[in-house]
Amino acid sequence: MNKSSINKLKLFFMGLESRFEENSSIFKEINTKFKTGLKEFKGLGIYKDNKIQYNFNGITKLESLNEILQNICIDAESYETLEFIYSERGTNILISADNKNVTMKNIEVKESSKEADAKSKTSKKEACLEHHGFEGTSTLLNRDYYIKVGKADSLLKEINIMTKDGKIKNDKIRKYNQIDHYVELLDNIFDKLDKNNKKGITILDCGCGKSYLSFVLNYYLTEVKKFKCHFIGLDYSKNVIESSKKMADNLGYRNMEFHAIDIKDYVPDKKINVVLSLHACDTATDMALALGIRVNSDVIIAVPCCHRELLNQYSYEPFKNITKYGVLKARMADILTDGMRGTMLEAKGYDVSIVEYISPLETPKNLMIRAIKTKEENPKAMDEYLKLMADLNVYPALYKFLSQWE
Questions:
Q1: Residue 363 pLDDT greater than 60, yes or no
Q2: Is 172 exposed, middle or buried (0-12, 13-18, 19+ CB in 10 A)?
Q3: pLDDT for 49
Q4: What percent of the chain is predicted at pLDDT more than 90?
């Protein structure tokens, strides 16, 4: 390859070096293919300890990306053409070089043929049950999934939804539908965040457990929406934290960290943009909401579970002939708990919506609280919250946690 083309190649490589410095957490690999006549010579470089382990012509070296790219330019002098692919999660950049020209373009990360097969089979299925916008069935749905079979196979296999040969497990179809609907409910909310923030967005998962939904959101935000993001998972169980770390390592998701710690003891060292809490039991949800408020998170998402706290606290004279029935008193306690949580978030400057996460046919604990920070604190909403406390004779955990942290 002539010197003119090699000099152009070096300019493109300088841009890739800057890209790697900024986005090394989502780098996957580099592939090279040199050609002279009919002969091809291929090379492969993978990430290892912030360097690249590159194999070419039977020789493997562990070097910085800069060193690897310099050597590729030197090798290019001995060949007629080069095809170079720089791969990140969800993005492939192709540089083609010969003696006439050097070009660079993004190339689509192709779906596997399995996705087309899955779509074809799905379109032949019977219409699925829909309940308030969510299809809570054990069949694949006739719709365009957010987490697609084919592109998301590695993720779906790691979280045990897909078999090794690329099929959604029959007993995991309902779970697959649920996690996809979870992404659907949050998709527009993430669009309100600053995608072009160079620091990216930080998502904190409180009571993360095995972090399945964080892994799913990580995939979707990074590889589909092209957000730069970082995930932090918190859970008091060391075993589930170790499990999450192993899964992140298996997937190559280096933009994640996990800590075995109680939520109330966690102090972030960076701006938190999104706080998540999925099925944290009883007052653990309040602890997560309080943490989101305390760190002034842009978005707070919670799917509450196990509403026990207010059941034995609240009393309201006008409702005494209703709440004398135990099951109705319990259901009312659930409503009061989540309603007061919404009111407190409004008092702290959030726009709040409470929606069905999944069909009540799946579980009665099926609500999602979505809160987006839009303004300063709202004294009127706080007054209403305090009046509710007095009228119902309750002292909610959310109020208590916030008072302790002030």
A1: no
A2: middle
A3: 87
A4: 78
Of residues 199 and 75, more confidence is placed in 75
* 119 DSSP 8-state letter: H
Residue pair 256/218 in contact (Cβ under 8 Å)? The answer is yes
Torsion of CA 179, 248, 256, 286, to 10 degrees: 50
Q: How far apart are CA 377 and CA 216, in angstroms?
A: 33
CA distance 201 to 343: 26
Instruction: Kindly tell me the number of DSSP H helices and DSSP E strands found in the chain.
Output: 12, 14
> Domains, the chain, ranges and CATH?
3-107 (no CATH), 111-185 (no CATH), 186-405 (3.40.50.150)
CA distance 28 to 82: 20
**How far lies 222's CA from each of 229, 242, 252, 346, 356, in Å?**
7, 23, 12, 30, 26
**Contacts for 267 with CB less than 8 Å, ≥ 6 apart:** none
| Residue 90 · residue 108 · CB < 8 Å | no
Going by C-beta distance under 8 Å and a sequence separation of 6 or more, which residues neighbour residue 351?
Answer: 371, 372, 374
Is the distance from CB of 372 to CB of 192 less than 8 angstroms? yes
By CB neighbour count within 10 A (0-12 exposed, 13-18 middle, 19+ buried), where does 222 fall? buried
Mean local confidence (pLDDT), 1-18: 95
Closest listed residue to residue 343, CA positions, set 301, 385, 304: 385
For 122-141, what is each residue's pLDDT tens digit?
A: 443 333 333 334 444 567 87
Specify whether the CB–CB gap between 372 and 299 falls below 8 A: yes
Q: Which two tokens stand for residue 225?
A: 């929406």
237-261 in b/e burial notation, b at 16+ Cβ within 10 A?
A: eeebbebbbebbeebbbbbbebebe
Q: What's the token pair of residue 348?
A: 């702290």
Distance separating alpha carbons of residues 258 and 240, to the nearest angstrom: 10
* Residues present in the chain in total: 406
Residues 7 and 101: beta-carbon distance below 8 Å: no
Quote the Cα angle for 192-89-260, to 5°: 75
CA dihedral (333, 335, 336, 337) positive or negative:
positive
Q: What is the pTM assigned to this prediction? A: 0.87
Question: CA-to-CA distance for 301 and 177, rounded, in angstroms?
Answer: 19
